[in-house]
Amino acid sequence: MTLHIAVLMGGWSAERQVSLSSGNGVADALESLGHRVTRIDMGRDVAAKLSEAKPDLVFNALHGTPGEDGSVQGLMDLMGLRYTHSGLATSVIAIDKVLTKQVLVPAGIPMPGGRIVKSADVHDADPLPRPYVLKPVNEGSSVGVAIVTDAGNYGNPIARDATGPWQEFDELLAEPYVRGRELTTAVLGDRALGVTELRPKSGWYDYDAKYTDGMTDHIFPAEIPDEITQACMALALQAHRVLGCRGTSRSDFRWDDERGVDGLFLLEVNTQPGMTPLSLVPEQARHTGMSYPALVQAIVDQAIGS
Predict the structure, then answer these.
(1) Which keywords appear in this protein's UniProt record, sorted alphabetically (predicted)?
(2) Within 13 Å of residue 207, how many CA atoms lie on the same side as its CB?
(3) Which of 38, 91, 234, 301 counts the most CB atoms within 10 A of its CB?
(4) Is there a catalytic annotation at residue 141?
């Protein structure tokens, strides 16, 4: 079935450039499949642009706020538009790391502990024993994440002039640092696709390591015990279902390989995973025999209920 699909991309979040890359890749794939595509770089006039386009479906290729936090989803609900990926309530919860914990931990999904702290207070004393992690509550792609260690260069306590998320956000989530390995699992519809281990060539898996070619090795399938593979896939699928995700999601884990399955912790669930050439969902789909256009079409099919 040929559709008129508006691809919503760009916007003004910290992940704008990633969204543009995702959106243009999706639009190219949709055109290769014979669909009619309208590309929309989201601005404050997005409602007018969508109203003018009158698409059969909106492919939401936005990352971060306001495309991933429920704002755009609510707008499209009010306009009566069908769209890909998760709906309003799921998006509101999943973008907020504290709300995500409040929903997933009671369901039996292991996540690191943590608490909200005032950014100004970290200059007086550490909120947790070092090492610990400070991160914004409502950002993705490791934007604004700092790992605070005894050997780090932030100072002890953190110096007021040290560059970090405490300069950008009034509140932060403080979590214990989980040593070990970075794992991720994509979910498409009702199945987990596999487990990738991410090995940054230097430092840790931050924004640059995620989106700069050659900075991180992607090991798929991850070279880990089968029980860890199965646990990642089961937890990712459970999180997808408990949160009410639609289409595709990606769950990120840390695994302390000295503790076996007890060392596996889910960090966050991404309801708008990247669709760039370096993104993990297309990569896992490809390894399971699904081409990029086929993945895009599968997301479209789920959105229209076919």
Answers:
(1) ATP-binding, Cell shape, Cell wall biogenesis/degradation, Cytoplasm, Ligase, Nucleotide-binding, Peptidoglycan synthesis
(2) 15
(3) 91
(4) yes
What global pTM score does this model have? 0.90
pLDDT attached to residue 208: 46
Burial-class residue 38 by CB neighbours within 10 Å (0-12, 13-18, 19+): middle
Asked if 185 and 232 count as a contact pair (C-beta separation under 8 A), the reply is yes
Q: Write down the residue that tokens 């595709």 correspond to.
A: 248
CB 276 within 8 A of CB 21: yes
- Contact status, residue 206 vs residue 145, Cβ threshold 8 Å: yes
pLDDT at 142: 56
CA neighbor of 18 nearest in space, from 211, 180, 158, 171: 211
d(CA 295, CA 298): 5
pLDDT value at position 141?
45
Spatial CA neighbour of 112 closest among 122, 127, 97: 97
pLDDT at position 109 is 98
Cis-peptide, bond into residue 157, ω within 30° of zero: yes
Q: Give Cα separations from 158 to 20, 145, 204 (angstroms).
A: 35, 14, 20
Residue with tokens 């490791």: 142
Q: Verify whether residue 223 is a known catalytic residue.
A: no
Question: What's the CATH architecture for 115-176?
Answer: 2-Layer Sandwich (3.30)
User: Is-contact 162 153, C-beta < 8 A?
Assistant: yes
Instruction: Please say if 211 is a catalytic residue.
Output: yes
171 is catalytic: no
CA distances from 264 to 63, 139, 161, 292 (A): 26, 22, 35, 30
Under 8 Å between Cβ of 86 and 55: no
Which overall architecture, per CATH, does domain 94-111+179-304 show? 2-Layer Sandwich (3.30)
Q: How many CA atoms lie within 13 A of 232 on its CB side?
A: 31
Percent of the chain with pLDDT over 90: 85
Query: Looking at 140, 268, 283, 292, which residue is catalytic?
Result: 268
